[in-house]
Amino acid sequence: MATHNDLGEQGEQLAVEFLQKKGYQILDRNWRYKKAEVDIIAQKGAVLVIVEVKTRSSNYFGNPQDFINQKKVQLLVEAANEYVISKDLNVEVRFDIVSILKNKQAFNIEHLKDAFLHF
User: Fold this and answer.
1) 3-class secondary structure for the chain?
2) Domain 3-112: assigned CATH number
3) What is the domain partition of the chain in residue ranges?
4) pLDDT tens-digit series, residues 54-74
5) pLDDT tens across 91-103, in order?
6) What's the pTM value of the predicted model, to 2 decimals?
């Protein structure tokens, strides 16, 4: 497997552990709908949280969250709608980004809540 795939999987696991420590219940990982894949679906209280995880080994080309575009946002919104409908949920939905930057052997984790408001 490619090194960037390993880093991505490691980042997703770190994000899960980070969110669990913050009181989030992880409902699903790598949930797919059509062309979209939702990295993490979590719940905190009455809020369903759709989480996109971006992990990078360097910020030379920008911060990890800078690599999410309008098309990705649209796919995630469609997937979230399908998830809510298919599970017959009555919840508020929020879209977050967990940005992870690897610095040598350490990881810097940033949780951006309501991250898609500016799209």
Assistant:
1) CCHHHHHHHHHHHHHHHHHHHCCCEEEEEEEEECCEEEEEEEEECCEEEEEEEEEECCCCCCCHHHHCCHHHHHHHHHHHHHHHHHCCCCCEEEEEEEEEEEECCEEEEEEECCCCCCC
2) 3.40.1350.10
3) 3-112
4) 887 666 565 656 667 788 889
5) 999 999 999 988 8
6) 0.87
